[in-house]
Amino acid sequence: MRDPQRVKEILQSMQKAGSNTIQVISDFDMTLTRFAYNGKRCPTCHNILDNSKLITEECKEKLKDLLNTYYPIEIDCARSIEEKLPLMVEWWTKAHELLVQQKIKKDLLAMVVRESDAMLRDGYQLFFDHLHKHSIPLLIFSAGIGDILEEVIRQAGVFHPNVKVFSNYMDFDETGVLKAFKGELIHIYNKREGALLNTGHFQELRTRPNVLLLGDSLGDLTMADGVQDMENILKIGFLNDKVEERKQSYLNSYDIVLMKDETMDVPNAILLYLTEFTPTSP
Q: Where in the cell is it found (predicted)?
């Protein structure tokens, strides 16, 4: 923490306001899911599909080439967001075009998730269940693939009614084959616009001006920009990769930075504190 005193003040203010004034806004890949397990990288929503039997070897090679070209740009501290933006759009657009060519069948997605190494962070059960128990909305903004994301949390048994997902959804034809992706591309730097476009969802949340934000990239910091009349926001950042190079920029931007922490322990401790004196709804 750059400023522990400030974190303490925000938490006290949020706790005093009560859990019915709180909403949680979170990224998904590498935030709610693990970055690595036993030294091996865990897959993102895109990786789950990319590494699956539904994708030809040739397509896998092309997707890997895209990753090797664009991922270093995404995590390069020396480049500005303005500079990265068109390149990230280029990356996701090309990747989605390749996936559409694969004629992916909708009814095989559950199997693909089941066979993957996708893992939610340790302590996820308490996190999701506690939010549900206290009727605290969890909004997940993801540049990943919504269909896969939902399947991951469904299979983990935590896709509760208080969870809303904003992501890139697949569009299937009448035979259940992928033909396109729906709507505007949501990527790492325009989630904020996703937030603003979905102000309908935020309307019902107007009585919840206290935000707990979870992310793993500096692009995630704008996810709460659609929240009107915000009173408090506590930003928790998972720093998973290139820790030393990025530590300072994360400390400057997030209130709490979790370095190489594969658990939900800190968010859970905060949630337990924030809901301590609030009676749960029957």
A: Cytoplasm
